[in-house]
Each structure stands twice: as C-alpha cells, then as structure tokens.
Amino acid sequence: MPYELPLPEPFGSQGWKVKIFDNEPPDDPHATVIQKTRKWRFALREQRFMDDDPPPREVPKDVVTTMCTNIQELVRQWDLIHPEQPVYTKG
Fold it and tell me: What is the residue-wise DSSP string for 44-57?
C-alpha cells in the first residue's frame, strides 16, 4: 500500500501530493512529488530531485521543506514498503 505524506494547506487542495509507491520498479529510493499530471522524483539518500523535467523549481519551496523536515518518516516508509531495497544499508 502506498504512503502519502500529509502536506500543509493550500497544497493539498491545489493537487500537490508526496507519495512513496508500492509498485515502483527497481530504482534509487525516492518519493514522488505529484501535482495533477506532473511528477518529480525526490531522492531520499541525497535529498535532491532526480530529474530535470519537469523543472524542480516548479515545486513550491514549502513542499520541499515539508519533505526535508519529514525525511526520516519518508525513509522509514520506503524501507517498510521496499525492504529488499532499503534507503541506507547497515554495515
């Protein structure tokens, strides 16, 4: 089951979402930022956007701040959903 990070208003009502999907193909651990039909991948290890298109600057600063503030929860949720590919390996 996917995880959705709660976002402060007005972002939710504007169609913004941050999700960790359970059906992701093998890929670097990331959260997906969604705004209606547009999507950005945000790397959980490096805490940066993985793609240049659409431009990451179009994601509101408060959405990025909310992700960074809640990075431990995003990492925890990724590891629960994708135990075969944890964000950080113990070693």
Answer: TTTTEES--SS-GG
Strands (E), the chain: 3-5, 16-20, 30-35, 38-43, 48-49
To the question of pTM greater than 0.85 for the whole model, the response is yes
For 42, the token pair is: 């945000």
Strands (DSSP E) contained in 36-89 are 38-43, 48-49
Sequence spans of domains, the chain: 3-81
Amino acid at 72: Q
User: How big is the chain by its Cα radius of gyration, in Å?
Assistant: 13
Each residue's pLDDT tens digit, 13-43: 999 999 999 987 778 999 999 999 999 999 9
